[in-house]
Design a protein that fits this description.
- By secondary structure, the protein is an alpha+beta fold.
- Helix content is 61%, strand content 8%.
- It contains 17 helices and 6 strands.
- Helix 2 crosses helix 5, helix 7 runs antiparallel to helix 8 and helix 13 crosses helix 17.
- The protein starts with 7 loop residues before the first helix and ends in a 9-residue tail after the last helix.
- The mean pLDDT is 86.
Length: 425
Amino acid sequence: MTVPALPPSEVAALVLEIGAGLRARDVEIAETMTRRITHEITHTRGDPRLAALRAASIHANVVTMIEILANDIPVGHLQPPMAAVEYARRVAQRGIPSNFLVRSYHMGQNVMMRICYGEIGQRNLPPALGLAVVERLTEIVYSYADWIILSVLETYEAERARSVNARGTVHAATVHPLLSATPPDPIGFEIETGYTLERTHLAAILWCTDGDEADAPELLDSGARALAAALNTDGPPLVTAIDRRTVWAWFPHAPQTAVDPRELRSAADLPQGARLAIGLPGRGLEGFRRSHQQAAAAYFVATVPGTPADHRAIGFADPGVAVVSLLAKDLDSTRAWVREVLGALADDTDQAATLRDTLNTFYEIGESHVHTAQRMTLHRNTVKYRITKALAAIRADGTAPEKLDIALALRICHFLGTNVLRPPS
């Protein structure tokens, strides 16, 4: 039996209807897609800025796909979303394999089709019409995925080709395996870089938050080398550009040298818009790796979206940074815990901020009213008043948190800011 052909206009009208209905769900769809991709592909978890850009890329792609469905826009008439292009460029700069990018788009395509199938199922269409709509939606979503993958791969390859000739890229290609789970080749690394591993290393990450992107790599490279000169290191530092706004650096010292990370911070005459994250000194290959992991943890704390930008230099040894770097990976749970511990003191108000700052300083310097007053340039009675009021705000609901919990919650607020505070009602 021959199945009668369906009017193309009827199929097209249903596709337009489904596309229009998805407009109100673009954020929900993008979040679902982001969760799926992040669960499967983890390369952005240690870098909040790259993770935020990936989320922006996914949302931009979702919005574009929905507009194609809702308006019957031919793929050939489109320009790639800027966020998707920029994300591909950053992925290339970081040396992340392009297959991660391709897999992400295929996962996104799968999520989008499942949502479209759900929309079709809700309409209880006759089988023939439902199948025709499925075929048309599949064709459109596949065409977009195929087109955008080719577009972003073109950007990726162009950026990789540019990076191959950039200063420090040879070091980057050698450094990444040394830091990963791949069995290291220390001898090959030392031959290629001229950097000896059997000594003490102090790792740092320098990055720019504003200014001309084209000038940033040279500016940061020069800044790292100036720091090495100021620290009187045991040879030139190892500096490698990770992207156009970020460099990794290792400052070498003689094996038995005592290295104080605070010297690096005090020597840091950072240009406007530049920031610094520092690890702890470590010896040999393991010290090289561990110091960088610590610098990366401090960098993670400093770059969680929404964190205060007034910490121009942050160190893994700073009070609370090591713990906050772990807690910041689960912001929802951390936020809930901070508000439970601090009560009204977790409110995002000027008054609560003043009390938090005073109590945080009080705990940091050994619970001395006199020293707190000196540190904050306040009268001792003012400090006592604020401490009393802060503790009263915490215990207003009858709870009595442990002092250690309060001190940690205050450090979390200090570093993560509005990410964990309670918005004004």
